[in-house]
Description:
The protein is mainly beta.
Amino acid sequence: QVQLVQSGGGLVQPGASLRLTCAASGGTFNSIAMGWFRQPPGKEREFVAAIGRSGFITAYADSVKGRFTVSRDNAKSTLLLQMNSLKPEDTAAYYCAADPDRTFDVSRDYSEYDYWGGGAQVTVSS
Length: 126
């Protein structure tokens, strides 16, 4: 059983930066692929970024590529999402998720993830 506790988020102006943190416990973090998803108001949950167990493999949604960076600190069992050049369309509830069954790659499909954080609201508005 993996527990994920998120922190970060908030209200920022367009062009600003934010960092989301996801602290994991209850599992062997360095053996778990991790992902970030978001759910904009009134829309379906969508893939944002994912990172493999060792951190060498990453994947991004086209909408955030070049602006967001996913990383992990396996020594601290922590997943990070650095978000730069934020846009109003980035406004959403952001969720971290764990995919403990994935070995060599990462998934963009939220149904593949077994454990979820509680979410953090990110609002980008002037």
